[in-house]
Amino acid sequence: MVKNGKDCSTEEKILEAAKKVFITKGMAGARMQDIADEAGINKALLHYYFRSKDKLFETIFAQIAQRFLPRINDIFNSELSINEKIEAFCKEYIDNVLKNPFIPLFVINEMNKQPEGFVKKLFGNEKPQLDKFITQINNAVKKQEIKQVHPLQLIINTMALCVFPFLAKPIIQWVSGMNQTEFRAMLEDRKKSVPQFIIHSIKN
Fold it and tell me: What keywords does the record list, in alphabetical order (predicted)?
């Protein structure tokens, strides 16, 4: 299939190659030549499809965000209990970043460079749909089913516990002496330990 004079299969091959390089070398360490080599094309063809590494990364990020946000909205808009939503969110979030570990640092860097512009780029006209979850938390507090907690604080705490190990990976590995396999195993375990910690913290 050809779109705007560009072959879609070649574009997809470049995007997949770029993901592999970004995962291996990070955003800063990746070079366009590395990506061209991984895709099995020359650098000139790569630049024909994507003018710069930043544009290439933005395309990958947009694809990931467009798949991730609807899944998160499905969780928060579902009929699951508060505990089940916390468990499902943590699993979805950690799974997504395990597949794309270069994302958290990219998000932090872009938010620092262009806060408002990046948020619009990230969400477009669609925001995470949290209203139902917030109402659910407030109702549970009123019924004394859970401790007094501000819904936003609960959401921020949950997100922070999920994302921090990815942002602090070099420090955690240096302090703990973990190798890559051990670090990944620890992250897999956090899909259970983080929701357990959050749920226990609000339990009445």
Answer: DNA-binding
